[in-house]
Amino acid sequence: MNYRHAFHAGNFADCVKHALLVWLVRALHRKDKPAFFLDTHAGRGRYDLESAEATRTGEWRDGIARLRAAPDPVLGDYLGIVERLGLYPGSPLLLRALMRAGDRLACCEWHAEEAAALKRLFAGDPAVAVHRRDGWEALGALLPPPERRGLTLIDPPFEAEDEFERLADGLRRAHRRFPTGVLAAWYPIKSRARVRQIHALLSESGFADALAAELCRRAPRDPAMLNGCGVIIVNPPFGFAEAATALLRALHDRLAEDEGSFHRVLPLASAVTAVP
C-alpha cells in the first residue's frame, strides 16, 4: 500500500469531506450524551502544506488556499477550526478538536509509518485510541460502541480495483452492527460510469435513509482525473440535506473550474439515474 495523503492534504476533496464532517459532529452534539467516533482510514492526522510532498503536487492551492482567500460565513466553522489547529488537520485531528468530555475516538491506519505518526500525535490522550489495523476489519471489531451513538467515517485511498465494492460491503456491515449510527463514506468522482456504479451498489443495500452529497469541479469526462468527490451519509441527522446544500454551494462557488461542474444533495436511490 503506497498511498500517502501528504501529497493531497488540503485539496478540494479534503475541503468537501471535512466541511461536511464538521457539520455532522455538531449535529450529533445537539444531545448531551457521549458519542463515539471511528475513523477507519485515518492517515497521520496532520499535514504540513509546505512539506516536500505537498509542494510537489500543490493540490492544496486549489483547495484550502482558495477558501482562505475568499472566506464564506457558511464555511466559517470548518475554516475556523483549520486556522486554530495550524498546518492542515486530517479527519482525526478535526474530530478530536470537536469532541466534548465523554466522547471517544478510535483511529485505524494500516500503513506503518502513518500509524506511528498518528500514535505520536495522540500520545497520552485517553480519549483517543490509535490502532494499526485494517480499517475494513475494524468495522466488525469496533462496532457497535457501548455509547450506542456516534459517527463512522470511511475514507479509503481507492487504490484497489474493487474499492467501490469494498465500500458498499463495508457500509452494509457497519449498518448491520450499528444501525442507529451515522455513517459517512467518501468516494472519488472520475467518470460517470463509476459514479453510477457506486450509487447502484449502495442503493441495493436497503438503507432506509441515505443521501449522496457531491461536488464536481469539472465535468466528469476524464476517468484519469479526480474531477469531483462525494460523501454517502447513512442516517443523516435532521437538517443535513439543507445544510449540506449550503456548504456545497459555497465550496462550488470557490472551487469550480468549468461549466460542467455541479453540486447536489439527493436521496441515494435517486442518485443512480441523476448523474449529469
Write the layout of secondary structure elements.
Layout: H1 12-28, E1 36-39, E2 46-47, H2 52-57, H3 64-69, H4 76-85, E3 88-89, H5 91-98, E4 104-108, H6 112-121, E5 128-131, H7 135-141, E6 150-154, H8 163-177, E7 182-189, H9 192-203, E8 210-216, E9 228-234, H10 240-255, E10 262-267, H11 268-271
Parallel strand pairs: 1-4, 1-6, 4-5, 6-7
Antiparallel strand pairs: 2-3, 7-9, 8-9, 8-10
Tell me how many strands there are: 10
Number of helices: 11
Q: Main sheet, how many strands, which sense, barrel?
A: 8 strands, mixed
Structural class: alpha/beta
Helix content: 40-55%
Please state roughly what percent of the residues sit in beta strands, choosing from under 5%, 5-15%, 15-25%, 25-35%, 35-45% or over 45%.
15-25%
Radius of gyration: 17 Å
| Cα-to-Cα separation, first versus last residue | 33 Å
Q: Note poorly predicted spans.
A: none
Mean pLDDT over the full residue set:
94
Shape: globular
SSE order, one letter for each helix or strand:
HEEHHHEHEHEHEHEHEEHEH
Give me the side-by-side strand order of the main sheet: 5-4-1-6-7-9-8-10
Description:
This protein has 276 residues and is of the alpha/beta class. The protein has 11 helices and 10 strands. The strands form 2 sheets. An 8-stranded mixed sheet has the order 5-4-1-6-7-9-8-10, sandwiched between helices. A two-stranded antiparallel ribbon has the order 2-3. Helix 8 (163-177) links the parallel strand 6 (150-154) and strand 7 (182-189). Helix 1 packs parallel to helix 5 (91-98), helix 1 (12-28) packs antiparallel against helix 10 and helix 8 packs parallel to helix 9 (192-203). The longest helix has 17 residues, at 12-28. It is globular, with a radius of gyration of 17 Å. The mean pLDDT is 94.
